[in-house]
Amino acid sequence: MKFASFAALPLLALSLAACSQSEAPSDEMEKAAEELVQTVMATPIGELELAPLEPRNECGDLQGANAFMAALDAAISLRDTEVVLALAAEDVKLGFGGADGMENLGAALDDPEGRLWEDLAEVMSLGCAENGQGGITLPYYFAQDTKLDPYSSMIVTDKDVAVREMGGNDTRQIATVGWEEVELIYEDGMPVHFGNDPENPNAGWMKVRVPATEDRAEVEGFVPARNLRSVIDYRLLAFSRNGRWRITALLAGD
Fold first, then answer.
1. What residue range is the signal peptide (predicted)?
2. Can you tell me the distance from the alpha carbon of 66 to that of 6, in angstroms, rounded to the nearest whole number?
3. For the chain, percent helix, then strand, then coil, each to nearest 5?
């Protein structure tokens, strides 16, 4: 799989800063993004061997998709609400309670107590897949066939992550996992969590069941919480409408 590195994003970000002040920021922004992406995509990148759920960009064959993603990525870096809204559909779906639309998206982005910008940045770092309906899905893994219960499974979000007998780096390593599904282990209705910090959900270790493969028996052990992401955490869907790519859904849960 060939990758294009968006090393030109700092330049694009500067262009977006100017474009966002114009009367039609989305038009100018997409034009600037398209020009830069054409240059970046022309640079050959070596073939990489990836794990089945490892992030990759498989959206490059869809006309305008790479430019759309580059523009969105730069807007997120700038935390420019106006530009993100220009890239969203008016009826963008934001959840399952009916509070959808651009106005609610703008309010969520501008909420000083919220963390939607961080969630968007994480989504953008996890690859892109064609969704089989002419649109794109981020993260990449969300468009793939997963095997475990999405409500109790997690994606290991790094390579060569140690599975340890107990929580802690000084305990025995019993397996290695990377960019694959694992299943949370529950006791008394709650996930087993060692070293929990109420102020930091990424602290500590989670007990998981690692499925068997051809090269590995099923094991149970502890993985750093920072290396786990819920299968049904935030994802973004986008489609091209009248030749313009727009975010049609940005939601978490099910």
1. 1-20
2. 10
3. 30, 30, 45
Query: 3-class SS at 221?
Result: strand
Residue with tokens 């970000």: 13
Kindly indicate the confidence band of residue 26, based on its pLDDT and cuts at 50, 70 and 90.
low
Q: Secondary structure of 110-140 in the HEC alphabet? A: HCCCCCHHHHHHHHHCCCEEECCCCCEEECH
- Domain holding 164, by residue range, is 153-230
State how far the Cα of 72 lies from the Cα of 247, in Å rounded to an integer. 10
Q: Do the Cβ atoms of 205 and 167 come closer than 8 Å?
A: yes
Q: What are phi and psi of 158, to 5 degrees?
A: -165, 170
Report the sign of the C-alpha dihedral through residues 138, 141, 146, 151, in that order: negative
Look-up of token digits 């955490």 = 233
Prediction pTM value: 0.82
| Domain co-membership, 65 together with 95 | yes
The total domain count for the chain is 2
Q: Both 241 and 219 in a single domain?
A: no
Please check whether residues 135 and 15 belong to one and the same domain.
yes
Is residue 117 located within the same domain as residue 20?
yes
CB 181 within 8 A of CB 153: yes
Q: 147-185: per-residue pLDDT in tens?
A: 999 999 999 999 999 999 999 999 999 999 999 999 999
Give the list of residues 6+ apart from residue 183 with CB closer than 8 angstroms, or none. 148, 149, 152, 153, 154, 208, 209, 211
Q: What pLDDT does residue 30 have?
A: 57
Q: Do 61 and 131 belong to one domain?
A: yes
DSSP reduced 3-state for 172: coil
